[in-house]
Design brief:
- The structure is a single chain.
- This protein is mainly α and 102 residues long.
- The chain has a domain of 54 residues.
- It is built from two helices and two strands.
- Strands 1-2 form a two-stranded antiparallel sheet.
- Strand 1 and strand 2 form a beta hairpin.
- It is elongated and about 60 Å long.
- It comes from Pseudomonas fluorescens.
- This is DUF3077 domain-containing protein.
- InterPro entries: DUF3077.
């Protein structure tokens, strides 16, 4: 019988396949592989906190777009982290489902 033991969520790590911020149609940055997903999600939460604060500042300060651009780049980083974690979780579900069907 195949081993269908699922890894503990704390054992799951980012896979590093998610790029963000493109220059000349090339990804300039990407999420690093090997970061525990709990730590990655915590960092994404911190980034999104800043996105919210910058977006609020941008709404009130019409003289400059610096808050809006800061929010834009932080949101791109946050989304990449979350997307990478989702890839790990979906891969784990697919692998586990296939192991139980064998």
């Amino acid at each position: 019988m195949p081993d269908t033991k699922q890894p503990h969520p704390s054992d799951l790590k980012t896979i590093g396949l998610t790029p963000f911020i493109y220059c000349s149609n090339q990804p300039l940055f990407h999420v690093s592989a090997g970061v525990p997903i709990g730590d990655a999600l915590s960092q994404a939460s911190d980034l999104l906190f800043l996105v919210k604060a910058f977006a609020e500042d941008a709404a009130y300060d019409k003289k400059t777009d610096r808050h809006a651009w800061g929010a834009y780049f932080l949101a791109a980083m946050s989304k990449a982290v979350i997307d990478d974690v989702v890839k790990v979780i979906n891969h784990q579900r697919f692998t586990t489902r296939n192991q139980t069907q064998v």
